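Write out the bound-state structure for S-adenosylmethionine.
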Amino acid sequence: MTALQVPQPDKERPSKDVAWYNPDVESNIRPEMRDLLLNYSKIPAEDLVGHITKVRDAAWDICPYPTVGLLLFLDFGIKCTDLPEPRAQLHTSILHTLMQGGKLLDVGCMFGQDLRKMVYEGAPVSSVYGTDLRGDYFPLGYALFKDETIIPQDHFIAADIMDQASPLCRFDGDLDVISTKDVFHCFDYATQIELAMRFVALLKPRPGSRAVGQHVGHISAGVYPTAFKDAGLANMFLHNDESFTRMWEEVGKKTGSRWRVESRMWKIKPHWEPVQVPGQPRGPDNRTLLFAVERL
Ligand SMILES: C[S@@+](CC[C@H](N)C(=O)[O-])C[C@H]1O[C@@H](n2cnc3c(N)ncnc32)[C@H](O)[C@@H]1O
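---
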């Protein structure tokens, strides 16, 4: 498997003069993120925009991901407030699992907004972990949420999720929930199968273990080559509901497990449609695919 080859910070700074760098921070602070930043992170309201801008621009220099440029990290992967179906019920049910002693790992967590929200809403700190290929994002997550004294640093693990010998092995068979936002679509189909199989190995081998999240989808499932070569992204496979379900059937066969797949595709916000993001065709056929996969 090929991990993403992201540019090193000492290389030339990525240009902000691209369609997927949105300078309008103010109107992209979703209400639930505003609440989190004001009341969990205690950022004064008048400093919010400057605070987010500073952290976002540091992350842009690490890798000019559309997630960073389009301020998509200001929404959550589980309770996705950008869409008409914010999945409050799923969010509450996961919160309940964590309050009962369950463990969540956010894969490709970048700033780790989903786990911060869980902690803010009452999940024990001991129940949440984040992992990302790039450990450089973790100090930025602490800078954004100002919670060094709340979440211990060893709850963020720099690792390639595909590497079966990585420090993530300590979670093998021990997780109740994996969340992952905007990660599946970074890979080709074969690598997505590998990713899902890694999830199966990490989750508790019992009914009720869950993988949840969202990623970019498309009405016509297939390979969409990307021009976003800087991040090593190529041949991204974008799913629709049918292809995503079929993929988990294949994963079930390969791992001797069975999974109930719920997925729903939503049209992206109309004002994003004209923003051409490399490898993520944005237009009338582009979708956000929300999913929750549960072991039977
Ligand atoms: C599009 S960003 C999404 C970030 C975050 N989940 C969000 O939506 O705000 C994809 C993230 O996946 C991480 N990533 C990519 N390949 C990975 C791998 N092989 N193992 C772990 N993380 C990976 C990247 O470093 C990046 O932070």
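---
Residues 1-10 have pLDDT under 50 and may be disordered.
The first helix runs from residue 31 to 39.
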